[in-house]
């Protein structure tokens, strides 16, 4: 018999840096899950990712107080900021000068990494989605 699922918890935690403090502790504690077990397993699962990379995780909580989790690829904005070599997007998109540049080749590379977690049918669709995200962050997309 399959275990009864009592809920899903979605968090974004820096890779290899999970700890029992908020948001992890309270989110797992209210479901009665073992917080330290999750912290150890998450940090072990993300040890091959660059430390500090924001990593979305979906935790499935079961009625018997056990859990499973799935890590996903970092958000598009993280890759775009890294590719443009900037720390944050423009606060006033369209009004101020662009804050950085990315090439279409960089967008294709990001799309190939992200494709399994994107709502796109093919790489070209994913590249167009990333170009839209870049534009909304004040990043110019140049050919290359």
TrEMBL record:
One of its GO terms (cellular component) is cytosolic large ribosomal subunit. Keywords: Methylation, Ribonucleoprotein, Ribosomal protein, RNA-binding, rRNA-binding. One or more lysine residues are methylated. GO terms for biological process: translation. This is Large ribosomal subunit protein uL11. Pfam families: Ribosomal_L11 (PF00298), Ribosomal_L11_N (PF03946). Belongs to the universal ribosomal protein uL11 family.
